[in-house]
């Protein structure tokens, strides 16, 4: 029933978004974008092939054109004078997405309870996003509504996929976290701190620091980081997005749609520090006793990758490494991530 509730919310939000959309600026809005994210530790994507920890993530995202305002946005901005003022002076992109994440211990062959490794867990959620942008700053807000537990279909999705590609299934899903509805709010600010431009190469290098936080019964944390990009004709955005942090996902404005004889490509590297007060995937359920481990309050993430855009299509690949997250298994973990976006011009 909880899964049905989340899916109904997604359908309801889509119906709202189909209603009349009003531009906030003098020029009419144009375009929209569709993005598919996949994060996995399989070697087929360039990962370490460990199949544990953060095992898999999928996200389907739709982003409205710049300054195109869906009808549900007023409920985000009307309650806050700060947001109303930010909305008036910034260009904006709003989005809606459906995402799923899976977490497992290292030894997925065991049917028995494994007390010294992380719990089995899955998270299914609907995300509503708002990105307020000026030439030098990006303010990103995301509200996630979903659930963890059996209703998130972690066992079915993971093991059906394993059967499809003919690899062993995970046997310990009987010990996953108990069912729990989730409500999560995230904020990230990014700054265009430094950049270099050339008449031939366009923008060919930039540095983008960031900071933010998360609050809800899934994650309570703060983070800060920095990304360096270098390449040909860098986009006028704030860096490539990820499934779990889509804070600059395919921004649709007239200048992001490239002509047939134009393209852009760049490499990037980044680092991010996390201070974590609560993580449901390590601390266990919020409202009842459940399997939990002793998490570290601070973690460090590094990433490197590349991005390419040709006309309306863009592709991003990255490799992410995370420092040990809990005491019982003090090991670094890694995964690969891809994002494929299509930007449609009206």
Low-confidence stretches: 1-27
In total, the number of strands is 15
Structural class: mainly beta
Strand order of the largest sheet: 2-3-5-6-7-8-10-11-12-13-14-15
What's the CATH architecture name?
A: Beta Barrel
Main beta sheet strand tally, sense and closure: 12 strands, antiparallel, barrel
Continuous helix count: 5
Question: Number of domains in the coordinates?
Answer: 1
Q: What sequence of helices (H) and strands (E) makes up the elements?
A: HEEEEHHEEEHEEEEEHEEE
Mean pLDDT: 83
Strand content: over 45%
Please bin the fraction of helical residues.
10-25%
**Gross morphology:** globular
CATH homology superfamily name: Outer membrane protein
Q: How many angstroms separate the termini? A: 38 Å
The CATH class: Mainly Beta
CATH topology: Lipocalin
Whole-number radius of gyration?
20 Å
